[in-house]
Amino acid sequence: MDQPKSSIAIFCETRAEWMITAQACFRRNFPLVTFYATLGEEAIAFGLNETGVTHLVTSVELLETKLKIPKLKHVIYVDQKKVSTEGYPAGLSIHSMQAVQELGAAVVKPQPSDLAVVMYTSGSTGRPKGVMIVHSNLIAGMTGQCERIPGLGPDDTYIAYLPLAHVLEMTAEISCVTYGCRIGYSSPQTLSDQSTKIKKGSKGDSSVLRPTLMAAVPEIMDRINKNVMSKVQEMSFIQKKLFTLGYNYKLEQIRRGYDAPLCNALLFRKVKKLLGGRVRMMLSGGAPLSAATQRFMNVCFCCPVGQGYGLTETCGAGTITEVADISTGRVGAPLLCCEIRLRDWAEGGYTSKDKPNPRGEILIGGPNVTMGYYRNDSNNQDFFADENGQRWFCTGDVGEIYPDGCLQIVDRKKDLVKLQAGEYVSLGKVESALKNCALIDNICAYANSEQNYVISFVVPNQKKLTELAKQRGIVATWEELCTHPDMEREVLREIKEVASSIKLQRFEIPVKVVLSPEPWTPETGLVTDAFKLKRKELKNHYLHHIERMYGGK
């Protein structure tokens, strides 16, 4: 094997071998270079070339994409399969993970300041950036996170299904290993009994594993929320009425600081079973979770749903809500490992003088703040050290601090667009408001400064839209429905209704819509692995629609 401090890359789905590789690299002081399994070939080639990696750990499935990387000498595959070595460059050796394990190697203890991980973020803009995380960053970040999870220990079982190349999942799993929790490996397609890759009548991974802890991105929670609610809609009138009564009663009890054991036993036991029935805490991160979904998960799954905020650049750490905090929409107070500061952003209209609470750009400082981007000086201006030598990162997110020290994310600098008449529109605010529409599964708002109105691209809810078409007597394929003017009008009508009920400004409400028959997944390249919108890619993807909607053609 190589000398300590030479990097090893991993390009693989979430599975036990990923974590085994990471732990082996940490112990032997090999920096680990991580890539999302869904990053395009070009982006991975860019990252491997930039870091000059000679050893790559991957799965047979991904190996078959036959990456053409000049410096690569060894590829280690994690499956039990036999691999044909034909068609690969002459200087490349291919090994199974078992063969490498048998070689063994002496443990070389890393220093706290040694590089542990170069984590390539799929980034919502431009080329992927490699974030340099040293060992002391990892320890600081996870110390902060673990302190917010009461009773973490060997009695816990964690279900792992998010991408391990994402800082949220990687730090969650390393924390589990540290505290002796069991980890069960799953995937988004096999998570519950209703998941797409589970045969009808078979059990999903959650039912078999019965986890006690779970991390989720809002996209997954929104999906669970919509699934349960569509099942409620199918109930008889009396059952529906009972569910609504029980839901509202428990909601009121939670607000008063109590629980509703009878409702839990009679109404929510079935819902709780969807995730195995033993989940004691759920943590959401990666993107803002809507208040409606947070409340819904809280009530129906009978467990606290904590929201956290952090970035790859801060080793995933920043804030996490306390278990007893039943407010929604907030991301909690700063963790033990860091401090948070707001910086005025006058152009966007956010300052420390704002009433009722100070607002501004969020700056995170502390030992969890990473060392910057790998060989990427042009982007490193977002990091700085203060007079005491503490490192800070400027997040680009806009926050509001409440009197109890909790933070709420209210905007993102990149999401703010100035319309022709001078009004500012926060695209993120419009999207999170309109995601509550029953007809909408996902939405991207778009505006530019030459125009005076907002437009939107929508992934409609197939079930709801098809039902609506039936009621209107429209017979068509799903693709045809999505281009049908009547359906576009219906979606716009619902957008208007929801927008006015949550008091969006007139100029913030999208006036035109494009319906997409295809869902946006990380594989399509239109969203990141944490399901955040990639605005640049979405804009290019819908460019001819944008020209049509703004050209009035």
From TrEMBL:
This is long-chain-fatty-acid--CoA ligase. GO terms for cellular component: endoplasmic reticulum; lipid droplet; plasma membrane. The keyword Lipid metabolism applies. GO terms for molecular function: arachidonate-CoA ligase activity. It comes from Sparus aurata. It holds the Pfam family AMP-binding. One of its GO terms (biological process) is neuron differentiation. Residues 3-374 form the AMP-dependent synthetase/ligase domain. It is an enzyme of class 6 (ligase).
